[in-house]
Design a protein that fits this description.
Elements (H helix, E strand, L loop, with lengths): L9 E4 L1 H6 L2 H12 L8 H13 L3 E6 L5 E6 L5 E5 L5
Parallel strand pairs: 1-4
Antiparallel strand pairs: 2-3, 3-4
Length: 90
């Protein structure tokens, strides 16, 4: 089993994301995020995440649900909270 790369802190999900995507899919996305699978980020943003892992910066992943909904997963720089949200809720 691959170890988590960082702590998620408190896990939060917006009402919008909970309405559009099932909890099992969201849990899978969060697991991927914590393992360093940044989803659909481009190479530049992947590099930003790699630096953030080392230097305690904010981490972000982007995934698409089976329903075609784009989901953002963001862990704050201090690892105190991870939020799952729709891009329009940012």
């Amino acid at each position: 089993m691959t170890p988590a790369k960082f702590s998620l802190g408190r896990l939060m999900a917006t009402p919008g994301v909970l309405e559009k995507v099932g909890i099992n899919q969201l849990a899978q996305m969060v697991k991927r995020h914590q393992l360093g699978d940044w989803g659909e980020l481009d190479e530049e943003d992947r590099l930003v995440n790699q630096i953030a892992l080392r230097d305690e910066g904010r981490l972000m992943s982007v995934y698409t649900s089976s329903e075609g909904v784009t989901i953002w997963v963001i862990t704050e720089w201090d690892r105190s909270v991870t939020t799952i949200l729709l891009p329009e809720e940012y």
